[in-house]
Amino acid sequence: MAISRHPSPSNSQGNRPDAHMSRSHAVCAISGEFVRVHSPKLFVAACTLATAALTGVPAQAATAPAGQGPATSGPQTLGAKTGQVCGPPFVNGDPNLGPVVLPRTGLVAKILDGYVRYGGLSPERFLERYFIPSANSYRFPQDSGFAHSGGYTNGRPLIRTAKLPLGYKVDRFGGESGAFLAPFGTPFPERSLRPNNLNNVPGDPHLCNYHAYRVIRSFLVDAGPAASAFQMPGQGEQFHTLAKYIPGAPANPDGEVSIGWLADNGYLERLN
């Protein structure tokens, strides 16, 4: 068992950002698996959890037979009665509600530890609150999903410019056309993501649509804590990749540069 620390992104002036960002990211390394810890005092518990996960003890978020962590091959098939890890099948047959079967071992299972589907709401009530049927889309939080000062929706968005340093590891649940990243291993509830972010994508080998990266060329991002959304508490750090920070990068209508472009053009190295 080894304890190591990830560097924290610095701000655009080269200094460490605020306390939320500057806190040490201790990680427990066991057989190549990592789990992020916010406080040095918690690393023993985190390592114990990681060890349990790697030795086959079910993760708390699990509701189905064992799956697997990040994969370079197709999703594991568990049989006709249970389906595939991260779907199909989907809850109530609706992909918007996410997969029936979640992984019980591996890195993704550790990230899902403590995840309660729909924040305890029924699937029907969850859709009533967050889904717009006429648009076939979820209702997303304002200000790119960043939290606001004082926790008020009309407060100042807690957004700053930060520089992701060489070697820094990040990840995301979602395809590479998106423009958001998180520090590697951020717990799923802290990301404030929709349940369908966990869905497997046909033809894509990434289990639970999970992608991990290492920064191989430093670049600037908008950074800050995620607002609570989709019955998730949020407050995990998120990084918004914007074309204005990267000369020559193509921008979508929202001014974003995709994660796929960053990986294809020497800024990010794909890890899975």
Helices, strands, pairings?
Elements: E1 2-6, E2 10-11, H1 19-22, E3 25-30, E4 33-37, H2 43-54, H3 107-111, H4 123-130, E5 131-132, E6 137-138, E7 160-164, E8 169-173, E9 180-183, H5 188-191, E10 210-215, E11 219-225, E12 237-240, H6 259-264, E13 268-270
Antiparallel strand pairs: 1-3, 2-7, 3-4, 5-6, 7-11, 8-9, 8-10, 9-12, 10-13, 11-12
Describe this structure in a few short sentences.
This protein is an alpha+beta fold. It has 6 helices and 13 strands.
Any overview of this molecule?
There is one protein chain. With 272 residues, the protein is α+β, with helices and mostly antiparallel strands. The chain has one domain. The protein is built from 6 helices and 13 strands. It has helices at residues 19-22, 43-54, 107-111, 123-130, 188-191, 259-264; strands spanning 2-6, 10-11, 25-30, 33-37, 131-132, 137-138, 160-164, 169-173, 180-183, 210-215, 219-225, 237-240, 268-270. Strands 2-7-11-12-9-8-10-13 form an 8-stranded antiparallel beta sheet. Strands 1-3-4 form a 3-stranded antiparallel beta sheet. It has a two-stranded antiparallel sheet with strand order 5-6. Strand 5 and strand 6 form a beta hairpin. The longest helix is centred in the first third of the chain and has 12 residues, at 43-54. The protein is globular, with a radius of gyration of 18 Å. The protein starts with a strand and ends with a strand. GO terms for molecular function: NADP+ nucleosidase activity. Residues 164-270 form the TNT domain. This is DUF4237 domain-containing protein. Residues 1-20, 62-81 are annotated as: Disordered. It comes from Microbispora catharanthi.
